[in-house]
Specification:
heterodimer, A: alpha/beta, Rossmann fold, de novo design (two linked rop proteins), 20 helices, 12 strands, 44% helix, 14% strand, B: alpha+beta, Arc Repressor Mutant, subunit A, Glutaredoxin, four-stranded mixed beta sheet, 4 strands, binds flavin mononucleotide, binds iron/sulfur cluster, binds FE2/S2 (inorganic) cluster
């Protein structure tokens, strides 16, 4: 369970440069796709691979691509989502920094498959040095005939451009990203119409995550069937997991789907266990938006099965006793962490990042933040706990974009699994956790 | 949605003349060329980054009006964007803007203490600028570096695995640069856009 697809070459010195990357087999997928495959054949291989979007929702990539309106007569666009602002997530940054050509190669194959002649990489504004790295990679690909006009004399033209955001989590949501790329505020659009029909500049558009696109080269080279042989069940391939919090070895790891959570958390190859030999308290396994799970439920499902790093296993138990793989941001809490304080912190994040279009999200996140603030600071009442559950329930499902859900789930799940800790805050009229430490 | 949109008073015009150098204007034409004809407004976010860097460190009304004129759009289209994104500063800032992460993963790894230490060392609250005009301190949300928590960003540089000792050292280095031009100035614009 430790085969690699994305990061197997990152230790090669100089792999960030075009020459070294190409010598290591890079760009062969572009040659193969453009000279031996039709665009439809590339799409078929991606469908066969079972690849699912790595941005958080896990939607099958081949299916998403097949929704793209090819008959409109308008230009089509591919946007690479490199906004990466979900707390706990820093895998795309790692990939782009270490091996940027893997993304460029994957994007060229993807654009060819989708009949796209202009693609954009939307990078969060805080990653300015990454923008420099990507621009250099694009320049090299151009100079070597892999971008521009008549690529490899196949008659196919493609330009890729880097675009910078400017500090707004919501611009990771695909329709907000499109608005932002058009030079506007990042207000998500009402769907339908979906971007596959009406996207950037009103044209059919696919938005895919960095990691999703970085997988395409392998799929072209080795075939979707071989890709599907990695992982287990409907979780095919590998996943980049960014691990952080109270662990010995924070960092980005490529895991093959199916590794057990226990091994990921405790093996020295990965997280290396809890820092300072403390006990595990909880994990948010997929970025701040997914439900938090207490120690016993992250290692095992409610039915006592070993919990695995797969879409299905992490979601086992639904919202009662499960969570989600999300973006792969694995946040670990030791026994000394205060769940109430962290929940307040995240509520503040979502309140700050709400675009403000929908009242349930705009107002609800604000209320959750202030109620959690008073609970954490010893001014809460017992009925505040149910009040929070009620606010979260009223946001969930009642908004234009999923940020509302993303704000509601962490609060609802923290109370579901750690209600006693919330109650203790009210009883002690002070944060009992930070009192101890 | 940041609170500043609601509580911001209407700003007086500063009334100073602002223009980019010919070299920067050339760069901006290149950036506009990345978007389809008629869609040059797409270049607004990148150009605002450059404007902030080149024209005084923050986006005054005059700077925003100037950017609007470059893109042939209404000033309001620039204001609404500039007020939405947290990386655009609407008020004057110090020479070095220190942006320290306050979000969950950093907070559980000592981020709150680091932020408090910075405030104490600089003798200002988050959002304020030191009286010598050298430092502005801001608390920001997750910087995408949670694996190296606690973290902060100064100008375009990440500082990771922060400790109090490290902060002493970083502040000293930044102070030594004093009010000279930022060393990476224009370099980052060259590379990044
Ligand atoms: C509030 C919010 C923030 C998001 N942030 C990101 C992000 O930073 N990066 C990303 O790839 N997807 C993000 N997404 C998911 C995107 O909307 C979209 O589903 C994804 O980019 C599709 O790519 P994929 O199918 O390759 O995963 C976000 C979604 C929401 C609702
Ligand atoms: S759910 Fe929140 S972030 Fe999404 S559109 Fe509504 S107000 Fe904006
Ligand atoms: S939480 Fe601080 S960088 Fe992500």
């Amino acid at each position: 369970m430790d085969r690699k697809i994305l990061l197997d070459k990152i230790d090669i010195p100089g792999i960030r440069s075009f020459g070294v990357f190409q010598n290591a087999g890079g760009y062969s997928a572009v040659e193969k796709a453009l000279t031996t495959m039709s665009p439809e054949e590339v799409v078929e291989e991606v469908k066969l691979s079972g690849l699912r979007g790595r941005g958080g929702a896990g939607f099958p990539t081949g299916m998403k691509w097949s929704f793209l309106d090819r008959k409109s007569g308008k230009p089509r666009y591919l946007i690479c989502n490199a906004d990466e602002s979900e707390p706990g997530t820093f895998k795309d940054r790692f990939l782009m920094e270490k091996i940027p050509h893997l993304l460029i190669e994957g994007m060229i194959c993807s654009c060819y498959a989708l009949g796209v002649n202009t693609g954009y990489i939307y990078v969060r504004g805080e990653y300015k040095y990454i923008i420099g790295i990507l621009n250099e990679a694009i320049r090299e690909a151009h100079a070597n005939g892999f971008l521009g006009k008549d690529i490899l004399r196949t008659g196919y033209d493609l330009e890729l451009h880097v675009h910078s955001g400017a500090g707004a989590y919501i611009c990771g949501e695909e329709t907000a990203q499109i608005e932002s790329l058009e030079g506007k505020r990042g207000n998500p659009r009402i769907k339908p119409p979906f971007p596959a029909v009406v996207g950037l500049y009103g044209c059919p558009t696919v938005v895919n995550n960095v990691e999703t696109l970085a997988n395409i080269g392998f799929i072209v080279n080795h075939g979707g069937g071989e890709y599907a042989g990695y992982g287990v069940g409907k979780s095919t391939g590998t996943k980049l997991i960014s691990a952080c919090g109270n662990i010995n070895n924070p960092g980005v790891y490529e895991i093959e789907f199916g590794l057990s959570v226990r091994e990921f958390l405790y093996s020295d190859k990965y997280c290396g266990g809890i820092k300072g030999g403390k006990a595990l308290k909880a994990v948010i396994p997929g970025g701040s938006s997914v439900p938090i799970l207490p120690a016993h439920l992250i290692l095992q499902t409610a039915s006592g099965e070993e919990r695995l790093m797969t879409y299905e296993s992490l979601a086992d138990g639904g919202f009662v006793s499960g969570s989600m793989l999300g973006s792969g941001g694995f946040i670990v809490f030791d026994e000394e962490a205060c769940i109430v304080r962290n929940t307040w912190n995240l509520a503040r994040f979502y309140h700050h990042e709400s675009c403000g279009q929908c009242s349930p999200c705009r107002e609800g996140t604000g209320w959750m933040e202030s109620v959690l603030h008073r609970l954490e600071h010893g001014k809460g009442r017992q009925k505040d706990i149910d009040l929070l559950v009620s606010i979260a329930g009223k946001i969930e499902g009642n908004t234009i974009c999923p940020l509302g859900d993303a704000a509601a789930w962490p609060v609802a799940s923290a109370i579901r699994h750690f209600r006693q800790e919330f109650e203790a805050h009210v009883e002690a009229a002070v944060c009992p956790v930070s009192q101890i430490h | 949605m940041s609170d500043r949109e609601i509580i911001r008073p209407v700003r007086e015009k500063e009334g100073t003349n602002v223009t980019f150098s010919p070299a920067v204007l050339e760069k901006i034409e290149k950036i506009k060329g990345r978007y389809p004809a008629g869609r040059e407004k797409s270049a607004l976010l990148p150009i605002l980054h450059i404007a902030q860097e080149e024209l005084g460190g923050y986006l005054s009304v005059d700077v925003m009006d100037y950017v609007a004129s470059l893109l042939h759009i209404q000033p309001i289209e620039v204001y609404e964007v500039a007020t939405f994104y947290t990386q655009y500063y609407l008020d004057p800032v110090g020479r070095h803007v220190i942006e320290v992460c306050r979000t969950g993963p950093c907070a559980i790894c000592g981020g709150e203490r680091i932020s408090a230490y910075l405030a104490k060392k600089l003798n200002i609250n988050p959002g304020e600028t030191t009286s010598d005009g050298l430092f502005t301190l801001k608390e920001v949300e997750c910087l995408g570096a949670c694996g190296s928590a606690p973290v902060m960003q100064v100008n375009t540089q990440f500082y990771e695995f922060l400790t109090e000792e490290k902060i002493d050292q970083i502040l000293e280095e930044l102070r030594a640069q004093g009010n000279e031009d930022k060393p990476e100035k224009s370099k980052w614009i060259e590379k990044f856009f």
